[in-house]
Amino acid sequence: MHPREGWTEGGIRRRPEPEENAISRRQLLGAGAGLAAGALLAGCGGSGSSGGGAAPTGAGGVPLPRPNHPVKWPIFSDNKPIAAGLKPETGATLQIYNWVAYINEAVIKNFCKKYNCKYTLTTFNTLSEAMAKLGSGQFNFDIFFPEIDVLGQLVEAKMIRPLNHSYIPNMVNTWPDYHSPFYDVDAQYTMPYSIYTTGMAWRKDKVNLTPSWSMPWQASNYKGKVALLDDDREGISLALLRRGITDLNTTSTAQIQRAGKDLQQLSALTNVRIDNNDYTDVPTGKTWIHQAWSGDMASAYEYLPKGTSVDVIGYWFPTDHRGPVNNDLIVNLKSGSNPVLSHLFINYLLDTNNAIENYSYYGYMSPLNGVTPQRLISEKLLPPQLSSTVVLPSYFRQGLYELQLPPAANAQWESTWNTFSKGL
Question: Which pTM does this prediction carry?
Answer without folding.
Answer: 0.89
